[in-house]
Amino acid sequence: MALFRKRLNRTPDPFPPWNPPLPSMNLTGVSVTDDTSLGIVTVWRCVEMISSTIGSLSIHAFRDGERIATPQILLQPNPTEQRIDTYSALITSALLRGNGYALMGDFDRDGHPRQLVVLNPDSVQVKLSDQTGAITYTVGEQVYTRFEVLHLRGMMRPGHIVGTGVLDSQRHALGLAIAEHEWTERVFSEGSIPSGVITTDAELSADAADELKKAWVRSHGGRNRTPAVLSGGLAYKAIELSNSDLELLEARKWSATQISAMFGVPAHLAGAPSSDSLTYSTVSEDSRAFVRFGLRPWVHRLEASLSNALPRGQSASISTTEFLQPDMLTRYQAAQIALDAGFKTIEEIRTEEGLPQL
Fold first, then answer.
1. I want to staple 270 with a disulfide (CB 3.0 to 4.6 A). Which of 136, 192, 215, 260 is the partner?
2. Phi, psi of 334 (to 5 degrees)
3. CA–CA gap between residue 266 and residue 272 (Å, rounded)
4. How far apart are alpha carbons 218 and 323 in whole angstroms?
């Protein structure tokens, strides 16, 4: 740890103050940044679900197909925080910005890192040398090689050395969602649309109208839902949502569905509207689809990046078995078939279920 801190405290400081990125503008005129995007509930849910889920999965190390003791860099990459925090931050950076960077340190006698610290992507510049073709990473004024920085890339485009995140590739769709969110907030915070109107044919003074309004609020405001009794020619008419308000609600639903598609998260898991009727079967299938198409690509990318930090011949493996495991009834039916067919013993089945041996 002391060696790692010594490397991190080199002059100049490899961790300069964070500089906010230039706003990613779009046709709506709103700024699409990490903060404004995560202010959208669906974006927050998708990013948090993918990053936290991957960060909580079991991780192991293998050599030539045989499982070995898990190295410290995989178990707890940063001693000052939990493993889920480190991996979640790395995945979050890659999801939003297309690239997650972590500075590796505390190298052993063979030059293999035992710790890593996730960097803010805005503090990292990636360059490709024209002479050697080597990739270098500049943090502040310090230059690091690819053996010192773990680089988790998102979707790659031909000819690029860095990944592409949703903040760049989907800024128009995100900008529309942010604009809808801001407009709705203004309507409720600054709008002057009352919940209803009390009318009468009689002429009322300002004081009389104000007293009538106060009396109505006292009798029927808040949670009071008792029937209203009006006399003297008074009539009450509730104000319903206008067509434009209804269109705004539909537009926000559509944006939520689009955001779910961006991240590969089933709509109902992200809290977005879904046209499908949810049953146990559809929820189970959606959960499996989420693991296969939403989680698995990121799991594979993280496995490959972590494997590069391990000694030659070793590889990192992240297990998604618990998410793909069928329900208890299905498992027991499969176990009975395996037992009857004779290709599994009762001891093997009990081990798989986490039960003690007979």
1. 260
2. -65, -40
3. 8
4. 53
